[in-house]
Amino acid sequence: MMFPASVVGSLPRPPEVLQLLDDPSSAAMDEAIRGAIAMQEKAGLDVITDGEWRRRSYIGVIAELAHGFTLETNPADGRPWTVVTEKLAPKPAGFIAREAQFLKKHSTVGTKITLPAPALLGERLWDAQRSRKVYPKRDDFVRDCVAPLRREIELIRASGVDLVQIDDPHLCLFVDPDVRKSYENPDRAADFAVEMINAVVDGFRGIKFAVHLCRRAGARVRQGDDGLVSAEVVVIAALPLRGTDSDANVQMRGVSMPRASS
């Protein structure tokens, strides 16, 4: 199949599903996810997810895999914020793998599970003030995120799920000149993000990998009066998934694109 149809990963959660997050393994949540699976299959999708409905956050889910995080209020916007405040220590593996097992059991088409990229976790969960006592450098925290993600992939593969998608929407922001100015060496930062994705997937056989790059994240950061997102860098990253069964080589090219409608 040349172009399989799928969702990015998450699906909108009805209010009644949001109310189930305090017990994501409940029978009610199971029933809701079976409905989400059936909806995608009825729509004719070739590869489906569980909608990420058991997760409070597609990024903060790392706190289910490792100790070392606290849930705080972000002073910038008042929203809940998972931040690393201690050295990471492994929790019992399997939170995301259990999502995979349930999805595989109740699906009749291709299946996909999503994981946040290590560098994305560094951008969102490391704070220069709150994290520097245990991780003076963001990159050291990012490196420590690789091991818990790899442990989860081992279990996801055993579940029989077809595809693991690594989400790194922040990588797209390196085509934005204003974002690039905030880095001492933006090209090196982009290369490091790619290296960390490769570190997560390196050596796995028997499962396919994909990378999710999201232009809309950049649109929220910077857009002109004409609704266009400027990008002056022609090519900033080539992403071969090293040592896997996936034949992927993702290139990011600078373009100006119309703002997506809300």
Helices, strands, pairings?
Elements: H1 15-18, H2 27-42, E1 47-48, E2 66-73, E3 80-90, H3 95-105, E4 110-116, H4 118-125, H5 138-159, E5 163-167, H6 177-180, H7 186-201, E6 208-212, H8 215-221, E7 228-229, E8 235-240, E9 249-253, E10 257-258
Parallel strand pairs: 1-4, 4-5, 5-6
Antiparallel strand pairs: 2-3, 7-10, 8-9
Helix pairs in contact: 3-5, 4-5, 5-7
Can you describe this structure?
The chain is α/β, with parallel strands linked by helices. The chain has one domain. 34% of the residues lie in helices and 20% in strands. The chain contains eight helices and ten strands. The strands form four sheets. The protein has a four-stranded parallel sheet with strand order 1-4-5-6. Strand 8 and strand 9 form a beta hairpin. Helix 3 packs parallel to helix 5. It is globular, with a radius of gyration of 18 Å. The two termini are 31 Å apart. The C terminus is likely disordered.
